[in-house]
Amino acid sequence: MERELKAVLSRAVRRALLGISLAAMVSNGVAVQAQSVPDEVGSNQLDIPKDVMLFGKNDPTVRKPTAIINGTVITGTDVDQRLALVVLANGGKVTDEERDRLRLQVLRNIIDETLQIQEAAANDITISQGEIEQSFARVAGNFKSTPEGFVGYLKSNGSSAASIKRQIEGELAWQRLLRRKVQPFVNVSQDEVNGLIDRMKQAKGSEEFRVGEIYLSSTPENGQRIHDNAEKIIEQIKQGGSFQAYARQYSEASTAAVGGDLGWVRPAQLPDELTATVQQMQPGQIGGPVALPGGFSIVYLIDKRRVLAADPRDATLSLKQIGINFTPGTSAAQAKATADRFASQVKAIQGCGTANAVAQKLGAEVVDNDGVKIRDLPPQLQQIMAGLQVGQATPPFGAVSDGVRVLVVCGRDDPVEGAMPTFDQVQGQIEEERVNKRARIYLRDLRRDAIIEYN
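Above: the chain sequence. Below: its structure as tokens.
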């Protein structure tokens, strides 16, 4: 079920959190700089006795609010339950340091969500309980569970149905608000679309990269310390941390608000130092620290392509996934032994026609997936899948927490060489980019006008 949760929550986890700065997260929204204070200015000046007797005690059952947004209370429970969803989506493997960082990110998420719901309500937009329940039922269905069963699963893992339902309400309210107040005022002219199509034709065959960047400024005096900090960030991301989340928290570039995403760029648009690094990377890899004038950059190659050229990773596949799960408490050695036996037995698969029969003998689960783009698979699988033909299977893959599985190719539609997007597709892309840009500005203004109290 964790695997399905990761897929269901991926959009929410990756949402652009145009976040409130860390200074705003300090108690009562005020950042206080520590200063050295003479010894005599302290408890003696306050005449506090050495033997202090407490005449009252804190009641641990009383929950103080974590934040109050325009009068709406967010409690520690709200944050804990949403955090539990994120931890589940990461397979439960989150370090204490990462958990603290995620808690801040979750709080920002809920603050934005609250502002969106409040603004929608101010414009007479409300999401009915029936709509929320329907969406919740669809989420439960993705888990092959009833809504009641899904409620129990969430509760057993420290979360709640209310947490997901609030997230659903926020997304639906914001989408409806944008359709009313933003989309009608976004216009894309015919000349703009044709101009972009002409530029794409001129750039045909040239290489483009979609790059993420975390920029850390430095001086000659602190250069080594900043370099070492950058290496620590890289290591934490390699261990499973979110690049986008670290970019929002640490990057000093203007792209920090969108998770460090530079978008699609050509080599000439990047500094020479970054170009040399990016051209040696494969999608999904992280590089650096790269020394630049005034600081260091950590770069993440999200994707790469050749303009209007066929990319094998754009092939659309029909797949069968055959997998077995490990029992709780399985050690790494036991998992490897089981995986080896599984690998030897799946060699009997001769195309999708025999896959179900072999899976039945193994006691394995079979899941059919149609319309899967190679580009959307994990980077480790993309190169393997690009070279497979119909009827062939991947080597076994997986993890101790996730079992072992193989993918069998049942169908394959390769991309057409030099396929030019249609006028409507280009127009839709431009419109979406402009709506998203205006939505970010809209949310920024809501934050600026909000009255937010932190505890």
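DSSP finds 15 helices and eleven strands in the chain.
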